[in-house]
Amino acid sequence: MGYLRFAALGDSTTVGIGDPLPDGGWRGWARLLTEGLRAHHEVSLCHLAVSGSTVADVRARQLDAALAHRPDLASVVVGVNDTLRSTWCPQQVRADLMHIAGELRAVGATLMTVSYHDHAEVVGLPRVVVRPLSQRIAVLNEIYDEVRAVHGGLHVDLRLRPEVHDRGSWSIDRFHPSERGHRALARAWAEQVRAAGIDVDLPDLEPCGGRAPSWRHDAAWIVGEGAPWLGRRARDLGPWALRRAAAR
Hints:
alpha/beta
């Protein structure tokens, strides 16, 4: 068994929100992928993702620890939070992502990046924010296209994944994957890793080992986490979206 270092950088999707464990905390696609890798390798996982992170947060608060880990694989799945803020600046997002990718490649890491699906379509947001948010996601994907053109790496295109349009793949907020969604994402990554010549077991798509679905837990999460998050985003994006609508 070879030794493999994996650094997982990003936001709540990589944290694993939507895939709760029975004793608390989150599992998520990165840990599921790690389980598949550990069937063939001794794996050191450096899990750095933090819920709510922007691209600038990853550069400022996660990158140095990832570089110190000297990863063989480094996932960078971040940027959606940037599109949900009134401070959205694609030029800065591009500069930060190119810097992150360049630094990780310089220590020998194979990058793992995504192309994002249209979150506005899946979540069912009000029409006043759907069009501009979709446009921002498209710009973010173009930036990731450039990152891959320069630095290469493994790629999962969420726009082409049928699971994205399956309600069972999403948690109650329709923004974070459910356990089934995390498993589908982990399996998509495992397929890419295997195609790159790294032995890995494909994660099972059937739920196992997580906390059983419960409306009580879902309701508690919505009250304690989901609703406050939506409120913050509404206060931030609402005035901007209304100005955009009025200008049309």
